[in-house]
Structures are given as structure tokens and as C-alpha cells.
Amino acid sequence: MTDTLDHSDTGQEIGDAGFSLKSGVSRLFGSWRTAGILIPFLILFVVLSIASSPFLHTTNLINILDQQAAVLCIAAAGTLVLVAGGIDLSVGSTYALAGVTAGQVGQHHSVVWAILAGLVVGLVVGLINGVIVTVFRISPLITTLAMSYIIYGLALKVTNGNLVLTGSIPGFQTFTNSTFLTVPSAVWMALAVVVVLAVVLSRTTFGRYVVASGGNAEAARLAGVRVNAIKIITFVISGGAAALGGIIDAGRLGSILSTSGGPSLSFLVLAGIVVGGTSIAGGEGSGWRTALGVLFIALIGNGFNLLGVDPNWQQIVLGLILLVAVGLDMWARRARA
Amino acid sequence: MSYETLDGAPHRAAGTPGDDLVVAGVSKRFGGVPALQDVSITIKAGEVHALIGENGAGKSTLGKIIAGVLAPDEGSLTLGGRTLHMSSPRDGLTHGIVTIAQELAIVPGLTVADNVFLGAEIATGGFVRRRELRRRFRELAQRTGFALHPDTPAANLSTADKQKVEIMRALSRQASIVVMDEPSAALSSHETSALHGIIRTLAAGGTAVILISHFLSEVLSLSDTITTLRDGHLVQTVDARGATQESLIEGMLGRSLSATFPEKQFPAADGPVVLEVNNLCAPMVNHCTFSLRRGEILGIAGLVGAGRSELARAIFRDAKVSAGSVRLGGDDLSGHNPRRSIHRGLVMIPESRKELGLMMGRSVRENVSLSRLDLVSRLGWVSRIRERRAVSSLMERTTVKAASMSLPVAMLSGGNQQKLLFARSMMKTPAVLIADEPTRGVDVGSKRAIYDLLVEMAHEGMGIIVISSELEEVLGLAHRVLVMRHGRISAELAGRDISEEAVLEAAFTEISAS
Hints:
The complex is a heterodimer. Chain A is mainly α. Helices cover 74% and strands 2% of the residues of chain A.
């Protein structure tokens, strides 16, 4: 048996060549999906810079990032779930459960245990989601919807409905609020999660398998991809990221409730992913664009506040943007078929 | 809405049998690429008019224009002297033109009768008149001779039965012209002959049938007139009585294909056995035993539903195997694990490239490297350079034509898509290749390229199993043929014993069930 790769060293390259600047630029702007979020994002950014003088202040920009740190983490992980052909509506509740668990554990144990306990809760929730979806073949929409009620119930049990304070836990605020280069650690963590997950999706074998599982699960399986394992891992990552988000906000805000996050957070995360051009049908998506999508929505909110526009409009505009994003995706799919 | 059309009420727009459809100077472009250029044909009432050509020749486009699915950029359609302006299949319907597409338009949740009358329900005040509907259904069933129960849920129907539903729907709309795009591609041979009967009946009743098909024997036996297209141009319209397979192929290719199959190069009779299947049992697979030698091409023939693909999947370890063993070069393959099979050197090209083979929206590169991504990556990190190099040499080897390896595979022709699956299977040269329907829906030129590839791979020492519904393909390629029936191997033919008659006899003859 000969390895065909051995003969290919002299093989002529088809397509663009390696790492040239041109190919990098074209990769960035080449796809309309990237342009579809990047251009509106830049336009909005420039418009807000001109229309509102406080907008461009470092404080304001860092504030936006700090507020979005949790959403960025959860959405970056949710992108993997969506690309693999799933959906995770339980992240809002997982966020709350992990946050209150960390807070409660922190009352009696060190902050390290508190954070670990919160993360483990999230990973376990993700594992359960993944197993139900793949082994028992229940639709991810229903699975994670049902799980979100269960998790919410558990969070109520853990807290008895009370506010959980994290401000009194030594080290908890250091974890989220200490600054490096004037940027809070919550933002650095979010940045790290986004970069790692985006690179995992676009450059690793695991990322390829995620895309293949969502693009055509049956074909991927026959091509030797462990589709179920891949899908379970995406749910585990999503659960872990939701937990990290909950812990970050619990520390950042000094307290957390069992009713924090919830469905509105799940939907906000989903909106960010979809506005970023990730297909709701799976098999297509990028972590970078998700980050832009999340921040785009955040900029709209921030802009409305700064410009003093009636905040009710914010929801309406967000809804319209979502429709446009999904419409563009559908149009692209149809154009291809 | 009016439902009078079912009775052929006075206001019916056009399409009385007897009218000729004249297509004059029709051109169509897709995004600047011409798909049809200045094509003119006349479809006479009551004739079977075949449209043939390689994939991408424009025959489906022409069929869609005739049915009103696509509007031509230039040129006109006239029916009985009246110019047709159609922009949707519904417009086609009002002129009595009906399409039966490759992808069947059946609502699985509705019954057979509901599907037949879909969109033209017999109703008063919004309530369906069930008794009247059944009466009409029985009439239609009698006319066509189809034995379908009106209350069967359509989801339970076989592909052939679904096609019958579509044909009944066409007839219920008083169709005067029926466009059939590859109607027999998914049918077994006895279903195909039933379909041929229906086509003849339709034509005898004055309905014109436009038949788009890859099967030249089918075209020759059914058609009155044959139009050949090549690269969007009309090559010829000929009387079917004067045509032969050779003359048609010559017209399609613009050159003659001297031999359809490459010469057989028999392997050494004492070559090492690379695959041993012993008493294998799985769903639809009963006690199958055979072996495969290095360099051998083993054909598996049989009717659709005889268990050929199921056998392939059981060997590939993608089915619940209840008994028996599969040994690959002395190694036992066990469990339910296609991934392990691939890594041990057994690859399978599945029967349906769209559903089971490719990620249609993803690039050529990603599709080719998928199953052995580990060969071009280190510690889970994909090396784009190594991947490009590997994929590009495989594309060359399998003669895939694509403008770029970053192109989504949906943009490629069926033949190139099929070749991509071969490229994927050769990321690491396997010991055994199972090719299930390797040339389904592929044009004549690509077919030959795939045959050459199979022969070349066998010559290099792979053991190859070819499963095909096209008997001539099995006969033309295989060194040895297994015939399956009811999940069993009912005959093994080698050397001079391989003949069409022997295969058909084994495929159709009942073996006493034990």
C-alpha cells in the first residue's frame, strides 16, 4: 500500500497560494457572510462616533465589552453548537445555575472551589444535553428547552429564591474585575474564549468535523466522523461557556439571582450568532463573525442610550435586523441550490 | 377556485390533444453562463420525445422551460399556434403541461388520494367532498391500471409508487404534455418496465411525453423522436427508428466512444485474499459468504431491494451485524464503526452522493480531505498547505474539473461530484474499495473516466466491489459477479459464465426459503 501523499510533494497547487497577504485579505472580505456583518458593524461604529461624542471614549467602549463579556463567551460556544446542527436554548438557565452555585459554594469554600463548582455544573448540563440529543435522538430544540426549565428549577432550589452575594467572597471580584492594561479580566477571558473557539472551528480537525456534522450528518458519519461524539462535545463546550458567563457576571455585578439570564439571555445569544451570519441550519458559521454580531447588537443598545432614543425602538430594530440576517442566509442557500 | 378543469370544462385554457408544441430559438443563461443557445424543437401530440445529452448539456433546462418552471431569456413557445407566456409551473399547468421531476413533489403526511388531487381538491365551501374525490380516484386508477389504495399515507410509498401518484396527478389535470426528468433513475427493473407501459399508454392516448433520460436503451425502446443536446446547443433531432446507441453517443460527445468499458485486466488467480466475508447476517443480509482477491473487481448485481447496499453497509460496519465476520487482510472488523473500517483500509463510496456522500455547501477541499484529515494535520491542527497539496494531486488523479478547490461542491457537475468521492477514498490508498452505484446520475464522459479509474485502482492492487443497478456496468467491469436476491447471494458467476441471461435468471429466480 502506498500513501498517495508521498507522491504529491511536487503536485501543482490549485487555488490561492498559502499565506500571501492578498489571500488573507480576500479571505477576510471575500465571503459575503463576513462582509454582511463587518460592513454594517463598521458603518454603525463610525456613525455613532460622529453622532455621539461620549461613544468613542475608552471608558464607554470598555464598558460595552465588559457588559458583553458573558454573552461573547456563550455565543462563541453556541456557534459551535449551531454549526454542528444543534441549538442550545438552555444557556440562559445554565448561566444562572452556575452563577448561583459558585456564589453558594463560595460562602463556605475558597473562590477556586466556587469557580470550579460553577464550571462543573455547566459542563455536566452540556453533557446531559448532548447525550439526550444524540443517544436518545430528541430534537435539540426540545431537549434544551426542557432542560432550561429543569435547570431553572434547580437554581431556585439552590438559592431558595434569594439573592446570592459574591462581593463578600474573597478573590471572586479579583477574578472578574482586576484590570490589565486598563481592561478588566472579564473582557480578557471573553477575548480568550472567542479566539480559542474561533480558531478551533476554522483551523482544527475538530472544527472540520463540527462543520461536517452539521452540513450532512449522514455523509460525515460514513466518511468516518464520530458525529455523535462531536455533537456532544459542542454541547459540553456550550454548557461550560454558559457557566463561565454566569460566573463572570456574578463576580462583575457582585451578586446573582436564580432568575438572572434565563430565556432572554438565550435568545440574545442566538440573535448574536445569527446576526453574525451563522446558519441556523448548521454546517456554516464562524466564531469571529459571532463576536461581531454580539457587539453589533450591543452597539445598537449603547447608541440608543447615548442618543436618547426611546429604548422600545431598540427591540423593534433588533427584530428587524434578525429577520434580515436570516433572510440573507436563506437567500444564499437557495442561490446555491 | 374552480375545480371544473378536472372535467375538461369549457374554459380550459389550451392543450387539447392534437396541438403541437413549438419551441423556437430558445436561449437561457444562468449568471452569464449560457445553458441553452438558440434551441428549436417541435413536440408533436401523442409522441414520446426524448431529450438526451451529457450532464450540463441543457436537457433539464429545456424540460423546465417547457414546463414553465423557468422562463426563457430569448425565443418563444407556442402551443397549437398560441404563444405561451409562462413564469411558473402553475402557468404550465393551465396550459396542460405537467412535469414529473427528479425530486418528487409528494406530501408525506397526506394520503395517496389527497396527494393526487393536491391543489385541485374537490370541495364545497372549503370542505373536501371525500366521496366524490374517491370516485374520481377510482376512475383514474382504472385508467392507469395502478393498484394504489387511496387512503395509504404517501410516506409509506416506494419511490415507484410515489411516481405513480405524480402520474395520476398529471392525468387528473388533463395534461396534454408530460415532462419526465429521469423517471426511471430510482426504479428497479420491473418497476421501470411498468413505467414504460404507462408512458406508452399516455402517448397512445394523444398525450405528448417529453422524456429526459440517461438510459439510452430506455430512450431507444420508448421514443418516437430523439433530440440530442450538447453544451446548450441542439445537435440533432432524429427519428428513433434510425438511431442506435452508438449514433446517439457520438452525437452527445461529438466523438465516438470506441469502447464503453476499458479492457478487463484479470488479476492473478492466486493473489492474496484481501477481504473475507463469512456468513454475514444483518438487516436485509442473510448468510453472505465470499472473498475478494487483490486486484480483483467483484460485481454485485441484483434487483433494487435485494440487499446489495445493505451488504455493502454491513461489510463497511455501518449496520447492526447479527452474525458472521468480515476479515480485512487477516484483521477482524467488528462492532459498528465505519471510522475504524476506513482507518484499517476499507472505504465505501455510498450510493447517493447528495444524501450520503457530500457536504454540498462546503468546498471541494474540505469534502475530499474529510475522512482522513489526520493525514494532513498535526495534533488536531489542519495544515492548509499539506491539505491543498494532497487534494490537488488527488483531483488530478481522479480528473476532477473544478475552477478552484475552494468552490462549494454544489457548483460542480454530477460527474465531478462523484469523482470527488473517489478522490476522498484515495486520501490514503485503501486495500478494499466498495463503490455503490458509482455512476448514478453521471454523464457518459464521466462514466468512462470513472470506469478507467476503477480499472486502474484494481490494477494497482486494490480489491474492488462494484454494486450497480446497470447490468451492463457490472458485466463490463467485473471479473467475477455475485447476484443477490432477498438478501442472499443467489449465484456466483465467473469467466465465461458471466452473461446478462445468467445474471437475470439468478436475480429473478426464487430460491426455496430455508
